[in-house]
Structures are given as structure tokens and as C-alpha cells.
Amino acid sequence: MIEFRQVFKTYGRGVDTLADVNFGIAAGEFVFVSGPSGAGKSTLLKLIAGLDTPSRGTVLVNGQNVGRLPARARPYLRRAIGTILQDAHLLDDRSAFENVLLPLVVTGHSRGAAVNRARVAIERVGLSGKENLRPRELSGGDQQRLAIARAIVNRPSLLIADEPTANLDRDSAHRIAAIFRDFNRSGVTTLLATHDESLIAGYASRVLFVDGGRVVDGGPRTPGLGAASAAPAGGGFAGAPAGAVPGAAPAAPSPRFDGRPQ
Ligand SMILES: Nc1ncnc2c1ncn2[C@@H]1O[C@H](COP(=O)(O)OP(=O)(O)OP(=O)(O)O)[C@@H](O)[C@H]1O
């Protein structure tokens, strides 16, 4: 589902934030992206989400070269990927419910269908009863739940979250991680960037370590969670040496992002 081939990312004339990065993630995997502050975890996620482009190399998502997508195709990519960035950008002049509704309105759903979907999303993240509160009236954990509901309301096949448990106490962090695990079990490929070793330790799943511009594939601890059973253990790249170019990831049926028929 995701493949990095000899990817470099350099900001300005500085050092390479990412240098010769190669890995693959199969549909259905649950993967942590770990590494020290400033290592390039956010950069990695932004390249996948099409929010930034590589300086060199190829980033493929569902077989499509994200860096080369024409501007008109980018909205389709964004809809297929639920993205939760560090700054959630929740809209404080709207209720929690309206925050979740908005992506559906933008994608042209009828009001009735949008309301139904938003209700389901709110329920799945455990925010029922808090729909009418403004984001600032929610706890940090509930704000993360809201950001997740907004990210999944368009039913993406891929969910990417950048430090979704930062600033949360341990219990809240683990409850948020459990929400991601549940989405993964329902078939959504999930990538979580985190510093939190205790979070990673609680899940027997694959870890990509980002450090010094390189990405080292920690491989799977055990076969992936939930829907990962649809993919080979570790997404087919188990045991690959760090930096090895993986084989083609098993392709999952997926929408094209360029709006053309499949
Ligand atoms: N838009 C940008 N312009 C210039 N430099 C950038 C930009 N985005 C990231 N960087 C630099 O790239 C490096 C990696 O940043 P990135 O945010 O990807 O790291 P991170 O691992 O996510 O860090 P953290 O865990 O602290 O969020 C840093 O040195 C950062 O200053």
C-alpha cells in the first residue's frame, strides 16, 4: 500500500532530513513510526499524505506516485487518507459534531447521509453525549478523539497520526491507541508516529525507527494486528535488512487518486 524508494528530503540547503529511505507497508498493517525529536517522523508522514514532496526518490501510495500527482488529484488522495497531524486544527467556532460533519459536507454528501456518518464516527471514538461541546471545552484526550473522528468520517483506507498521544497521561494515551487498534482491526492500514516507548511496548506490531535521516525497519514483533492477517507477517518484508528495498507490497483494492476510472 505504501512504498518508499530511495527517498531523500532536504529542506533548503540543509542536511538531508531523510536520506535514501526504503521500506514498504502492506494493506492492513499497524505500524509505529518512532525516533528522537527532530528525526523526521512528521516529514515521513507528510510525504505519505501528499502534504510535502520528496526532494528525490519515489513515494507510492496505492501504486500511485504521490510526489508526481497533479494538483487536481491531490484532494482524492487526501480523502483516501485520514490524517491527524500534531496541530489538530479543530474549529473552535463550531461544535464537536460540526467539526466531524465538515469533511462530509466538503465531499458533497447529502445532509442526511452526512449526519448519519458523523454520528457513527462520534460513537466509534467514544464521544457520544459531547457532540454539542466546542473543541476547547473538551479534555486533551477528547480533542484527540474528535480529531480521529474527523479523520475517519470519510472512511479512509489509510490512517496516519502524528504523536496523537502527546500531552496525554498514560491511561488516556493507551485509550487513544486502543481506538487506532480498533480501526486497524476493521481493515484500516494505520501508522502512528510516537516517542512513547510504553505505547509501542504495549502492541506487538511493526516499528520503523527514524534517526539520522535513515529509517530502520524494526520488523514485526509478531504478525500484525487485526486486519494485518490479510497481509503476510510484517507486510512481506520481515527480516529485510535496514534500508533494503522491499519487494512489491501486496496490493489491496484501492481507489485511484487521480479521478480516473480504475
Ligand atoms: N518545513 C520545513 N522547513 C525546514 N525544515 C524543516 C521543515 N519541516 C521539518 N524540518 C526539519 O526537518 C527535521 C525533521 O523534522 P520533523 O518534524 O519531521 O521531525 P520529528 O521526528 O517529527 O520531530 P518531533 O518528534 O519533534 O515532532 C528537523 O530538523 C526540522 O527542523
TrEMBL record:
<dbReference type="GO" id="GO:0005524">
    <property type="term" value="F:ATP binding"/>
</dbReference>
<dbReference type="InterPro" id="IPR027417">
    <property type="entry name" value="P-loop_NTPase"/>
</dbReference>
<keyword id="KW-0067">ATP-binding</keyword>
<feature type="region of interest" description="Disordered">
    <location>
        <begin position="239"/>
        <end position="262"/>
    </location>
</feature>
<feature type="domain" description="ABC transporter">
    <location>
        <begin position="2"/>
        <end position="237"/>
    </location>
</feature>
<dbReference type="InterPro" id="IPR017871">
    <property type="entry name" value="ABC_transporter-like_CS"/>
</dbReference>
<feature type="compositionally biased region" description="Low complexity">
    <location>
        <begin position="239"/>
        <end position="255"/>
    </location>
</feature>
<protein>
    <submittedName>
        <fullName>ATP-binding cassette domain-containing protein</fullName>
    </submittedName>
</protein>
<keyword id="KW-0472">Membrane</keyword>
<dbReference type="InterPro" id="IPR003439">
    <property type="entry name" value="ABC_transporter-like_ATP-bd"/>
</dbReference>
<keyword id="KW-0547">Nucleotide-binding</keyword>
<dbReference type="Pfam" id="PF00005">
    <property type="entry name" value="ABC_tran"/>
</dbReference>
<dbReference type="InterPro" id="IPR015854">
    <property type="entry name" value="ABC_transpr_LolD-like"/>
</dbReference>
<keyword id="KW-1003">Cell membrane</keyword>
<dbReference type="InterPro" id="IPR003593">
    <property type="entry name" value="AAA+_ATPase"/>
</dbReference>
